[in-house]
Each structure stands twice: as structure tokens, then as C-alpha cells.
Amino acid sequence: MIARLQAAGVDARDVEGGVWIGVPDRAFAQAALRALGVSAVVAGGGVQVPADAVDAVLAVCAPECLLFDLDGVLADVSQSYRAAIVAAAAAFGVTLTPAAIAAGKAEGDANNDWVLTRRLMARQGVEVSLEAVTEAFEAAYQGTDDAPGLWRTERLLVDLEWLGALGERWPLGIVTGRPRGDADRFFGETGLGALVAASVTMHEAAAKPDPAPVRLCLERLGRRRAWLVGDTPDDVRAARAAGVVPIGVVAPGDDAGETRAALEAAGAAVVLDHVRQLTEYLP
To answer: What is the extent of the structural domain holding 31?
Structure first.
């Protein structure tokens, strides 16, 4: 174990009962390891872990790539996808508030906005087919001859220079529930696509919280160890199940306290107020 860790640049040494790991932020390392199922004890200027925890330690201390959810993390969709949920429900006489949508996301198993819209409508006693809900949602999001699509309101939440600096150190991947066409359009409109080495979208793998899309993105990147930044419990659970360090972030417009509580309950190693804070924790 020591040889593998040291070969990856990790400060490690054998101690009685396990391995000592030198880390700059002991509380974060302890939380990140706990998210991956490893019990770590703060010891001196680092943490002590069981001798068989090498894979988790490498994931925390020496990630080979960085993965991001797209919506709410790198893309502000508060006036697009979230607004399309409201519009789709309204087409059937149902009023959905941003708080109700955020709560539905926090419950989990909510990576598909069409399915989530139908679920929230049903809770108000309005049962509509998924096909009809999807059609109403897409009309609002993509636009019609009479109204521009809500996708036009989307913007990057970070500057490309910041992402580019990360990309010089780690390959960047996107794991999103967007359809491929929507994702590629955003990549092209914003220039994000030039910085993304691999991406996984809707229908290319099972939806989060299943770990399949995370694993597929790692496969496409040719990497094994990663961190993933996401704004929902589904992101956190998918990352943990894939052996990837889960980092939470509060999406624009969401209640910070409620979001933080939901992400922490799902097992996030840390919850950021903004994705740019990621650099405070990276090795």
C-alpha cells in the first residue's frame, strides 16, 4: 500500500494499526474518506486509515480527473430547465413553485426533469402521461414559432479561464441528465466543449443515482480515480457508488440551508457555496 501511495505522490507511512496519510485539510480528508466507506482518525498533521484503504486514499489524495454535473454546477438553469418545469405544469393547470421543485430534487431519483414534473403534478392530483408532460416541457425549453426557447437564458457559472486551469492538471468530464443535443448546444454556445475531454448524457447510461454514468465517463476518460461535483443528492449517491469523491454545491436560486442539509445527508464530503471553491480542497 505504501509504495502505491508514494508512487502517486501521497505522503504516507506505516504506523501501528494502519497507515498515516499527510493531508493539508484533515477534516475534509476524513469526510471524503468517510463518504467512500473508510473510517479515518485524525492523527498529528494527517489522518490514519486501515491498511486496506488504498483505493479510497488515492481517490481522495490523488484524483486522476475531475467530473462535474452540468446543470446547477457549471450552467445556471434557474431560468431554463427549472422554468420549463413550471411552464409544463402550468400547461395543465398546476402551479409549481421553485421551492417545490428544489424539494423534489432533494428527495432524490429526480435526475429526469420530465419525470420529476409529472411526479410533482401527480402530487397535486393531476395525472398526465409522461409523453404529454414531455411535449409541454420541450415546447417551453426549446421554443416555438411564437416564443423563444428558455435555453437561451442559460449561462456559464464559471469563467473558461478557471476551468482551463483545472483542465491543465486533470482531464475534465461532464456527467449530466441532459439529452445529448441540449448538452452539445450548451457546449458550443459557451465554449465549454473545448475544455471537456468526455461527457455522458441522458440515455447513454442509467440515470443518476445509478453509478453507471459516472463509471462510463471514467471509462471514456481512461481514468479510475476522480472527484465529482454535483448539486443534488442523486449526484452525491452516484459518485459514492462509483468510488468517486462526492463534492456538493448549492445551485443558483436554491435555498442554501436546505440544499446543504440534503447533500450532507446523502454523504457529500463537503458542500460548496460556489463551484469555484473547489480549488480550496484540491490536492
So the answer is: 2-61
